[in-house]
Design goal:
Number of domains: 1
Radius of gyration: 12 Å
Largest sheet: 4 strands, mixed
Shape: globular
Number of helices: 3
Structural class: alpha+beta
Distance between the termini: 9 Å
CATH architecture: 3-Layer(aba) Sandwich
Helix content: 40-55%
CATH superfamily: Glutaredoxin
Order of helices and strands: EHEHEEH
Strand content: 25-35%
Number of strands: 4
């Protein structure tokens, strides 16, 4: 399973969410693709004020802060 993290390099919350995901990757068996939204105008328009946003496909799992419970529930359901 590959999750997508909408990210900005200068965003402290983005770095926090990325770092919080790392220890869960091996346990829950997912990879993370990091997308810098400022490189994609359509993503910047859609997610601008919500970053960081964690997605699986088009499904938003959480934004601003990692919701570990929501992540675990989503992975179990997938």
């Amino acid at each position: 399973m590959v999750l997508t993290l909408m990210f900005r390099p200068y965003c402290g919350l983005c770095h926090q969410m990325r770092d919080a995901l790392r220890p869960l990757q091996a346990e829950l068996g997912f990879d993370v693709e990091i997308v810098e939204i400022d490189d994609f105008p359509e993503l910047e328009e859609k997610y601008n004020e919500l970053v960081p946003v964690l997605l699986h496909g088009d499904t938003e799992i959480c934004h601003y802060f990692l919701d570990e419970q929501a992540l675990r529930q989503h992975i179990q359901a997938a």
